[in-house]
Write a structure and sequence with these properties.
mainly alpha
């Protein structure tokens, strides 16, 4: 019996397939970007929960510190806006 070696694609055939390989790579890049954004959203949600705890402690502290309360509320509002923006981007892009 004659042994046949697997045929190796010719260089020109490899060049013809380069677009499909690039398309495949873009698919992975797209999924990676989506997962990265989803991870960032989780980070924002966690940070928002932590800021709720800080704000509640600040508002119930004695003596009451107005500056700390305002700073905590500002940080919470900022993270809330970032979370909303990230969720909007996730919905629009993916």
């Amino acid at each position: 019996m004659e042994q046949t070696t697997p045929s190796v694609p010719k260089y020109i055939d490899r060049l013809k397939n380069i677009d499909s390989v690039e398309a495949e790579k873009l698919t992975f890049s797209n999924r990676k970007a989506q997962k990265s954004l989803e991870s960032k959203i989780i980070d924002f949600e966690e940070e928002l929960t932590d800021l709720d705890i800080v704000l509640n402690k600040t508002l119930s502290s004695f003596p009451f510190n107005v500056d700390k309360a305002i700073d905590a509320e500002d940080k919470k509002a900022l993270v809330s806006r970032k979370l909303a923006q990230a969720q909007k981007m996730l919905k629009e892009l993916f």
